[in-house]
Amino acid sequence: MTKYIGKSVKRLEDKRFITGQGKYTDDIKLNNMAYAYILRSPYANAKVNSIDTDAAKAMDGVAAVFTGADVPESIAGVPCGWQVNFKNGDTMKEPPHPLMVRTKVRHVGDAIAIVIADSKAIAKDASELINVDYDILDAVTDPKAAAQPGAPLVHEDVPNNICFDWEIGNPKDEVEAALASAAHVTELEFVNQRVVPNAIEPRSAIGEYDTAYDRYTLHTSTQNPHLTRLLLCAFVLGLPEHKVRVVGPDVGGGFGSKIFHYTEEALVVYFSKIVGRPIKWTAERSESFLTDAHGRDHVSHAKMGFDADGKMVALQAYTYANMGAYLSTFAPAVPTYLHGTLFQGLYTTPKINVDVTATFTHTNAVDAYRGAGRPEATYLIERLIDLAALEMNMDPAELRMKNFIPAFDGVEKEGYVTQVALQYDSGNYEPVLNRALEMIGYEDFRAKQAAQNNGKLLGIGFSTYIEACGIAPSAVVGALGARAGLFESAQVTVQPTGKVSVYTGSHSHGQGHETTFAQVVADKLGIDIGDIEIIHGDSDRVAFGMGTYGSRSLAVGGSAIVKSIDKVLEKGAKIAAHLLEASPDDLNYEDGKWTVKGTDKSVGFGDVSLTSYVPHNYPEGLEPGLDFSSFYDPTNFTYPFGAHVAIVEIDKETGKVELKRFIAVDDVGNVINPMIVDGQIHGGLAQGIGQALHEGTVYDETGQLINGTYMDYCMPRADDLPSFEIDRTVTPCPHNPLGVKGAGEAGCIGSTPAVVNAVIDALWKAGHKVKDIQMPMTSERVWNAMNAG
Amino acid sequence: MIPNTFEYKRAGSVEEAIGMLGGDAQILGGGHSLIPALKLRLNAPGALVDISKITSLQSINDNEKSITVGAGVTHAAIASDAVLAEHCPMMGQAACEIGDIQVRNMGTIGGSIAHADPAADWPAVLLATDANVIIQSSGGKRTVDIDQFFKGFYETALEEGEIITSISIPKTAFNRHSTYVKFKQPASRFALVGCAAAVEMDGGIVKSARIGLTGVAESAYRPMSVESALTGKPLNAETIDAAVQNVTEGVSVMSDHYASEKYRTHLAHVFVKRALKNLI
Amino acid sequence: MANKISITVNGKMHTAEVEARTLLVDFIREHLSLTGTHIGCDTSSCGACTIHMDGKAIKSCTVLAVQADGSELTTVEGLSKNGELHPMQEGFREEHGLQCGFCTPGMMMAATDLLKRNPSPSEHEIREALEGNFCRCTGYHNIVKSIQYAAGKMNGATA
User: Fold this and answer.
1) Fewer C-beta neighbours within 10 Å, C or N terminus of chain A?
2) What is the nearest CA distance from A677 to chain C, expressed in angstroms?
3) ipTM of this complex
4) pTM for this one?
5) Chain B residues with CB inside 8 Å of C60's CB?
């Protein structure tokens, strides 16, 4: 009975977007609203001696100017939601992240003052009249350099800028011993550079205080309104949670950067009561570059050992991870539990150790960005294996096949227990790579590569990845340091007429939940998809939620919906049985009606729902109404996987890399809407390819981000990319009711190393045996690699 | 992003515009060099004199010995102009490479050369065309040879109170045989290196050559050594390779995170070669 | 100092007094409350603010409202006529050319401008024509298909 599931149903939410009626935070105008501009530090590390706001306050149209001194000491700042301990058991260093600085700025963009005025123009004009006296200090931006003796300190009470150190896997001596006896060891030092998420909608927040009800409302561009409300109320402003409404209206992309609770959200809420007006703040793009949490930024050193047959025997990785100047909401989780736990990859490597040192630097915070830790792990593993194939003169596809974990479905054959604390749910890895090889025409590729004669080098790169999605079992993440649960909630309200309102704690900001979730509900209830509305993003309408990130919405949020539907159908069956004068056990539910088995006696869903609200002829003792809430806490992560292949050409004269083809075969478990899943893959690919070829922050020695605009930071455009060639296999998730695994991050996780590997392959085959080219692989870097030595 | 305050004056004619200049007034053409700077508050004039509605600045005129391109002609209009395509193909080729279609629909050739961005496309092309820049002020009109127009980093021969009214492109054999090639800075799509080349051939021999390079130095320039090395020789791979040896002679090559001095120098060689090879 | 301007937007004339520095995009969003036109950057790069001015695609973040005095503008809100979706809007829905929807209005305005100039563009031509518009969600794959859909539909209609 799948009228909708598995079909490419066109998106129900599209109409408002294609007609210009989407409602993003900055589109909202409230009565008597004031506009905020935040004056930010132009220095990465400086002592603030004084801030003179008198002239700004005196400007016509300025309602108020506040600095850090106007924020009570009791408001320490925005909190971190994940605790990682040092290897010796000490708690990580967790210096406060104040809403605005009081005495010291720690990165370019740190907030100095907020100007609140009648228009954004006046607010900005007034900000230019604020005089700040700074003592400029030395800065450090590199995560490894920050940990060296003598590096400038970000926080005086954090020695060597080390936030924590951490390791996972087998004991180091065992790994080292395995490497020592390996027939071949591939070793690589590299940087997984910092990238900027760059959702096209800049962050925006409107704080409003209603004196009549003593209630606050925050509209904000967020991926999880309820978590923002919890943090804002319980950990920042000390407000009663039932007196605060947080709305995440239409949100123009997030990619992780809008998960976190940001200082600006607290500022507009706090000062809206003091000023007595709603306050809107919207980031300019250059502010987004300086203050949206960034991604990646690892400096790593790794060794992968093989026996004489090419079987992996050990993997050791050391990583310095940049936290930025302050800990963002989930920052400590990213290089640890979302990274170190992924080093098994798809392979049977028996000895693995991952060692991570997280440091503070004079830079903007780093936190989860599409993939979050998993791309960094995948990058390291997949770069090493492709390089090993080149070094050992083996075929990179064959080398992978040789090392794949054998297939397991998680039912007949139990999940695979890794060396790094996870148990994979289900996996079947050879078919994705085989399918990709078939799509490329790999049999002919090497001959074509050797014969290439157009002034360009041809290269092919592989990446076979796994990720942990469907985040996450609360008890597990709690044990790992999460200060929140990671379940999801769903309320299914069947209206008397049989129309269905579904309230989900997931938040859609491009993922198409309003369609995919409705497909699930429509099929489960056997009703028309037009009779369903999916409601999300408003803490006053949705009782609770944990939001959207970590490819979790369908696997966790969708499962919560299924639970509520099961409850609806169970109660509905009792009502139907009463109406049909039968036992619930004798009923079948199909096509929107309950039928007495073996008869044509039936009653429809709408009749049952109406009866539940007009309970005149009704089962004794049964409550009226047809409305159920559920919370779903998964029992495990989900583990999507796939094979990505890049084919590149390199201009020998300029070093310019052109991506000719990109093939992705992914397995994300069952698929509800293939069109939407394909779209998620496409978008992830573009971001992963962007990191390989185009994107990356550049800081100067004083801590200035020197490519903090779109004129300097290269965002992939339509003509930088080919059309993608994608396909999938289906290995259902054995532990959630929909069998789905999640598709939001896959493209971004697998693609980056494939592209870099392709460039290395092209160079290697042309006799330039370089091991690494720093991403983004700009033309100059590739040209240098071709012309080195 | 909001500029500082300024006064706005719309001119109906060049004469009116000249009368409105003075003080800290600046000219607003298509606005695609100026408005971005105003938004970032890198530039804060007291007044803007909008010349974008002066129709006399917006035409391309086909004269007997030259083509006059009004200062207010947009990049898009140049890209699709048939007369220029015939007499000076590098103009249209370069126009297509500027920014994006939205930018080309607003940005003007006069605004671009007045701004004199060291990575803009027009300066290289106009140097290769041997154009004249027609300038007007309250004192009358004057003509500046393009070789005297670009003075340095965002610096031109324009003086206060002057307005560029048109650019005159000579109808020459070398302009008819011309090309523009560009290696883009990947983010801004300005030129990391842009090369315009125009070569007059006579019986298989280069009679004259003009080459303009942008993106390389603080200002667009002509690599004279290349032009002279080619003159009197056949145009082929060997003569070109030999001629381009000193493309960056006498200039200070720029460096940034997309192209170091060394790499940019290399690109300059490659793109002068590619431009010339297009003309074989 | 206030400047009086008259601008026709989606067929309707608006007269207003604005500061000289008011950007056209702010005029459209704040004064006219047509919030389908978006602001995504500071540097005329992202194209989210793309509209048509006198029939041509422009970036409304890089034009002053006073410059548009006397002009005719079309914004995304003016794309559909008589309640019927424009073929471009239909194409974006049919081919899943949008995810978060933020770049979409600008993307569609740039694309309709392309089809005016070139009714049957190749994939390469479509990708080149979109160089002034960023999308962070779709990888452009389905945007290209959406525009091809619209081109097919519009050519079919005129054939």
Assistant:
1) C
2) 11
3) 0.98
4) 0.97
5) none
